[in-house]
Amino acid sequence: MILWGLWTRRNERFHGQLHGRERQADVVAKHLLSEYQGAVKKDLATISNEIKETRSVVWKKPQLEQVKFNSDSSWQKETSRASLGFVARNHNGDVLLSGVRVECYVVSPLEAEAEAIMWAMTHARNRNFQNVVFESDSLSLVNALRNRSTLRQIACLFSQILDTSLAFSACNWSFVKREGNQLYP
């Protein structure tokens, strides 16, 4: 940085652009060092925020006596097919149940996500789980279920999900970012 300051000042002096104290290389070096330190602080702050963001997407265990079902889907527009999956875990994080299947004639990613939740709910009801959390990376679906505000695109399926939720003594909806909605936490 000092060499850069000397070179810059040499060019400014050569072109007659220097006045007073500005001619001294130490002023330039201190200014460049200050800019460098500011940039490093910004980079460190950015890295720190990225680390916090990464930590916030980690899968979290359900409460004692609760079973958490993480569901997910992928949808292919060209074939109207969706792959559905779910994993059920207890408060220790142990896998109790899981499943994967392909569904034909699915018209949207939203419908695919709803189908995955409905399929997980069917398994939860069949296993007689009573205190359940259904976690998905579909924010719009989770918000609609929490608020019980019907999504027109999937009205029938949405109604079926809400009706099925009444079979449990406690049924909660949870959103998790895609990175936290993986098979292995």
Automatic annotation (TrEMBL):
<dbReference type="Pfam" id="PF13456">
    <property type="entry name" value="RVT_3"/>
</dbReference>
<dbReference type="InterPro" id="IPR002156">
    <property type="entry name" value="RNaseH_domain"/>
</dbReference>
<dbReference type="InterPro" id="IPR052929">
    <property type="entry name" value="RNase_H-like_EbsB-rel"/>
</dbReference>
<protein>
    <recommendedName>
        <fullName>RNase H type-1 domain-containing protein</fullName>
    </recommendedName>
</protein>
<dbReference type="InterPro" id="IPR044730">
    <property type="entry name" value="RNase_H-like_dom_plant"/>
</dbReference>
<dbReference type="GO" id="GO:0004523">
    <property type="term" value="F:RNA-DNA hybrid ribonuclease activity"/>
</dbReference>
<dbReference type="GO" id="GO:0003676">
    <property type="term" value="F:nucleic acid binding"/>
</dbReference>
<dbReference type="InterPro" id="IPR012337">
    <property type="entry name" value="RNaseH-like_sf"/>
</dbReference>
<dbReference type="InterPro" id="IPR036397">
    <property type="entry name" value="RNaseH_sf"/>
</dbReference>
<feature type="domain" description="RNase H type-1">
    <location>
        <begin position="70"/>
        <end position="182"/>
    </location>
</feature>
